[in-house]
Write a structure and sequence with these properties.
With 73 residues, the chain is an all-alpha fold. It has one domain. Helix content is 71%, strand content 0%. The chain contains 4 helices and no strands. The chain has helices at 7-14, 20-35, 40-57, 63-72. α2 (20-35) runs antiparallel to α3. The N and C termini lie far apart (32 Å).
Length: 73
């Protein structure tokens, strides 16, 4: 069973990605989600998914997140 993580904690985890470009793209996507008035729960789940993808692909990979970022907008 997963322990619920607050949006604030998730946003702090963005800094731990180890890749400045990925961190910026994930945070910019969060700002976009806020600008279109999505719920905090929706924002949190999407940002957590992006963080997990970043961890899966590794800190040396930025291509995947650029594609996701463009697709989602």
């Amino acid at each position: 069973m997963d322990i619920p993580v607050k949006l604030e904690t998730t946003l702090n985890n963005i800094q731990l990605l180890g890749n400045e470009n990925n961190s910026k793209l994930v945070y910019d996507f969060y700002l976009y989600l806020r600008s279109v008035n999505t719920s905090e729960s929706y924002q949190n789940q999407n940002i957590k998914a992006l963080i997990n993808m970043a961890k899966f692909f590794g800190k040396n990979s930025t291509y995947w997140i650029s594609i996701y970022y463009e697709f989602a907008w």
